[in-house]
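Translate sequence into structure tokens.
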Amino acid sequence: MNHLTFKPLTLGLLAAALIGLGALGFWAVQPSSTTSAAPEASKAPASAAKPSLTVAVIQARSGSLPIKLAANGSVAAWQEASIGTEAGGLRVAELRASVGDRVKGGQVLATFATESVQADVALARAGVLEAQANALDAAANADRARAVQGTGALSAQQINQYLTQEQTGKARVASAQAQLDAQQLRLKQTQVLAPDSGIISSRNATVGAVLGAGTELFKLIRQGRLEWRGEVTSAELSRINVGTAVLVTAPGGAQAKGRVRMLAPTVDAATRNGLVYVDLLPGSLPAQGNATASVGASFKPGMFARGEFELGQSAALTVPQTAVVVRDGFSYVYRVGADHRVSQLKVQTGRVLGDHIELQSGVKPEDQLVASGGSFLSDGDLVRVVEASKKNDAVDQVKPAQTATK
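Result follows.
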């Protein structure tokens, strides 16, 4: 019984051993073929890789860019004259100028009623005549006294009185003449004249009003000249000189040329800013009506304006703005390598001139940069270059990038 039971077990073990040896032989042969096929499979994706974008490349262009200093400020009158009354207690008879009128020096702006003044002039003239008559009588008495002086006909005291009356008469004539001159001057002051050429900026008088001496009637922008008063920091104030050219821009977009006339001698202790006084050049402003001086429709006193001081030029590397990509608040460009793969470079941008922007750091003049379409690229992407510009060629000759066709 025991022999019969052992024999089937032995045969089963032998069969299992043979199957195991066959399997080991099979796997011993298979790795060589699998290993040789692996490189073929790994090479397949590389050979099948396609460019993600077709791009044109450029190089940063070397050149000179203007150095500009921006500032804010307000437009003001160069000088504003206050025109008021000199004679008090007179009634306004006529106003011959309104706000915005351009006037010339000496032009009549307003007149006052002259009846009472003319009466005072007549009275003063009569006083002059009376004083002259008394003076003549005193002079005749003095002449007679001189004639009998030394004869004893008149005492020395009487002779002295006649001579004194002569001098008093002359003084009264001069006093009466001065009063007449004062009244005539008051009559002249019934006409208010423009002290200088310019533009009327305000009018406070009304016809029929009786005004006191010194009451303001008009305000005049002398010679129609405007100035821009820019505020700059104390550090920037030292970079500006008298005569520096300035371009001032109004809120509406109108621009005017100016030139620095004066720098403020002090700096505000609260803001640490200093004022720069810029003359807006006549002829550079849009004129209103028949005005040919500075005051125009686009620039008026009290208006806020922005200005740029032209401080010279400096060397710079520039690229088209389409080559710069802004992500997460930082600026980047894409450099194309020899293997046509792009590298993302972080750059520091600076001045903008037209459609070009300055790169202050991050690139070299010889770097090949993607001209446009960088927003569709990532670091390490493969691209197809369709055109490469020569070093420092004009950027506007490079064709824009195109999307690759699959």
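Note: The radius of gyration is 50 Å.
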